[in-house]
UniProtKB/TrEMBL annotation:
Keyword Disulfide bond: no
Segments for region (Disordered): 407-428
Enzyme Commission number: 2.1.1.79
Source species: Mesorhizobium shonense
Molecular function per GO: cyclopropane-fatty-acyl-phospholipid synthase activity
Official protein name in the record: Cyclopropane-fatty-acyl-phospholipid synthase
Pfam family, one: DUF7884
Keywords: Lipid metabolism, Methyltransferase, S-adenosyl-L-methionine, Transferase
Gene3D superfamilies: Vaccinia Virus protein VP39
BP term (GO), one: methylation
Family membership: Belongs to the CFA/CMAS family.
Length: 428
């Protein structure tokens, strides 16, 4: 192992049990010996040199290219040691901190997400083969954080619970119109239409997702009530009773937050309600991971709440509720990682070994960031008027309970304030 890398690791790794074998076969141990052991083998001098200068990008790149193997502990173990040493005299070492600081300083240049660029960025990730996503997502293909009401929930159960949790905050009534910004494979829109007898307009920039969602609406016989368009939300002009956006805001970019909320305010009716579900930071603003930005989500950015709130305030929207979901995404990613591992040969048949190693690193590093770093989920409820929603939050819990009964196949309870409906009674 070269002297520079050894000095860096000596300084970075104060806690944990990390072994590193260099290209020439020598092995050095770092940390205090606590916790599960992790053993990395850096196989080439090229990778060793790159890791010395930019570890947060060079480690995943070396792993993808087969120049680094993890003999013990897996990617999750490597990232656990990295994140657990942050702030303990470790990863805030001068060189690494300077590199990440530069990335933060230039983050706005990396997030000029015009309509054309936004579509290209989305296609880089979401237009991968649908067969790939079927290998690790739940049956409804929910590619966002699940909601683990109980720790022993299956992934499918937790994703249904997520849809209930979001729906309850929208306070839907029969006959209303709903805009789903970033509608994915259509599962949430279809759920809302069936449960509440509402009309849903979904928009996405992914050709793959648009095709699947449209087919699903027809298969469910809901094509007259649920429509999906291949369109940028900025091109819309209609007004809606409700707006929901799940897992899309991460792609907006910090430069465009004012545009997003201004447009949302324009699209929302005077008595409307909006629910934004997005990855966020519990800490201060920081740069997108270099690996994630380069290989997974180009143009993506995870905001601190302090970056989101000013744009909301200037839009004229009223913040009516904020909830922080902690560790739910870590458990979601754990399920995805296990499912991907179980179907790795199928993924390799669709793409190749390098892609599989990239995807493994992405899922495990993301899980680690939610477990040991500062990533969380923001659920921000918005309205145009401060008297649109009840003063007490208990209406959310009542709605979730009623939806749970419905999802379990029990007789659907009639809500206290439901209006007569043309098709079925809604759950409120």
């Amino acid at each position: 192992m070269n002297i520079l890398l050894k000095r860096i690791l000596d300084r970075l790794v104060r806690v944990g049990n990390l072994k590193v074998t260099g290209p020439k076969g020598s092995t050095v141990t770092f940390g205090d010996g606590s916790g599960e052991p992790v053993h990395m083998h850096i196989k080439t001098t090229h990778a060793e040199r790159a890791i010395s200068f930019d570890p947060m990008l060079a480690v995943p790149e070396a792993y993808m290219d087969g120049e680094l193997d993890i003999l013990e502990g897996g990617v999750l173990g490597v990232m656990r040691i990295a994140f657990q040493n942050m702030g303990s005299g470790g990863i805030d070492a001068t060189w690494s901190k300077a590199i990440e600081g530069l990335r933060h300083a230039f983050r706005r240049l990396q997030q000029i997400n015009t309509a054309a660029r936004a579509r290209r960025n989305v296609q880089r990730h979401y237009d991968l083969s649908g067969d790939l996503y079927k290998l690790f997502l739940d049956e409804d293909m929910q590619y966002s954080c699940a909601y683990f009401e109980q720790p022993d929930m299956t992934l499918d159960e937790a994703q249904v619970a997520k849809k209930r949790h979001i729906a309850a905050k929208l306070r839907l009534k029969p006959g209303q119109t709903v805009l789903d910004i970033g509608s994915g494979w259509g599962g949430l829109g279809l759920y809302l239409a069936k449960a509440f007898d509402v009309d849903v307009q979904g928009v996405t920039l992914s050709t793959e997702q648009h095709g699947v969602a449209t087919d699903r609406a027809h298969a469910a016989g809901l094509q007259d009530r649920v429509h999906f368009d291949l369109k940028d939300y900025r091109a819309l002009n209609e007004r809606f009773d409700r707006i929901v956006s799940v897992g899309m805001f991460e792609h907006v970019g910090v430069n465009h937050y004012r545009t997003f909320f201004d447009k949302s305010a324009t699209l929302l009716k005077p008595d409307g309600v909006m629910l934004l579900h997005t990855i966020g930071r519990s800490g201060v603003p920081w740069a997108t991971s270099a690996f994630i930005r380069k290989y997974i989500f180009p143009g993506g950015y995870v905001p601190a709440l302090s970056e989101v709130m000013p744009a909301i305030e200037k839009s004229g929207l009223v913040v009516t509720d904020i909830e922080i979901l902690r560790l739910h995404y870590a458990d979601t990613l754990k399920h995805w990682g296990m499912r991907f591992a179980a179907n790795r040969d199928k993924a390799k048949a669709i793409y190749d070994e390098r892609f599989c190693r990239m995807w493994e690193f992405y899922l495990a590093a993301s899980e680690a960031a939610f477990r040991w770093q500062d990533l969380v989920i923001f659920q921000i409820q918005l309205a145009k008027k401060n008297d649109t929603l009840p003063m007490a939050r208990d209406y959310m819990a009542k709605c979730e309970k009623a939806l749970e009964m419905r999802d379990m196949g029990h007789q659907e309870p009639a809500p206290a304030s439901a209006k007569p409906t043309r098709r079925r009674k809604a759950v409120e």
